[in-house]
């Protein structure tokens, strides 16, 4: 039993460590955006929230074009970390 418990715990740790979490840029609050995205501080996170009120983002290139403080380097750092659904 102890072996099974240790095996399950080890498998859980490996699964958790290999899982990357994506942030929905169209629904996350500014605090979450600043915390979870590389190169995004409070001002850029607030700009994302303000800009998406006009219309949801559709791609990382869309964010790059529309948000002051978000550039190509930020896009590269966050590819794969961002989703774009406009539903919660």
UniProtKB/TrEMBL annotation:
GO terms for biological process: protein secretion by the type II secretion system. InterPro entries: Competence_ComEA_HhH (IPR004509), Endo/Exo/Phosphatase_dom_1 (IPR051675), RuvA_2-like (IPR010994). It holds the Pfam family HHH_3. Residues 69-88 are annotated as: Disordered. Residues 1-22 form the signal peptide. It comes from the Bacteria. The keyword Transmembrane does not apply. Keywords: Signal. The keyword Signal applies. GO terms for cellular component: type II protein secretion system complex. This is Uncharacterized protein.
